[in-house]
Amino acid sequence: MENSSRPLIGIIGGKGRMGRWFHRQFQKTGLDVLISDVDTELAPKDIARKCQVVILALPMEVFPRVVREVGPMVPEEHFMTDLCSLKEKQVEVMMENSTCQVCGTHPLFGPGEDSLKGRRVALCPARGADWYGWWKDYLERNGALVAEFTPSEHDRTMAWVQALNHFILLCLGKSLEEDGIDFKHVLQLATPSFERQLNIVARLCLQDPELYATIQLGNPYTPTAIETFTKHAKELRQILRDKDRTGFIRIFKEVQELGPSLLKHCEKTEK
9-149: what CATH class? Predict the structure, then answer.
């Protein structure tokens, strides 16, 4: 590993929100960083040739094209990773268009965070162990909570964590809009859990709808998650229409049985 203690880092897409965030993060920790974007002096190919660590902070729509362009230029002994929200196709295209060491990275936080401390990061190691070890160590030394997945494990899980979650939030927002209910009254009567949901809906105004659309439409596991959810929503809706108290209690108890297992995993995560 060449200059592994202080590698020259390059961010392709360095003026995007997450590109800027990691640029600042690396500078705070004393690392030298070069960036390229649509209006920078350096082109993506310059980053690919010069930098030991190449980070692709790109929209998923242009990701394959850029990787096909720059991937072959990254030397075999160097490292390439991405910051995309999905991993199967992204890792595959990096592997197919390069000979360097490769890892998929998904920061499970947005650009509003102050640091890596306490933030979750998913890693999908693909080729090479040396630079992967450096990257994982860097993230953990700066406080990140790192978990490893295969690309398929990652995307299948994200269909529930992101795609279904966004689906629920959008349905909640549209339902509140259609009802026309007074938000002041809702907040005055909101339980802590519902207030948290409302805050998340409100914060959608700060998000990129193009990214959210890609997350919904680009994950092959999303339809299964949505169909499973809507199947149970229809069942519960029918129980409520029929005023079927026994059926409601049955479903409630079935969900309660998940509690001990979920709590155990939550406690492990907090530690």
Answer: alpha beta
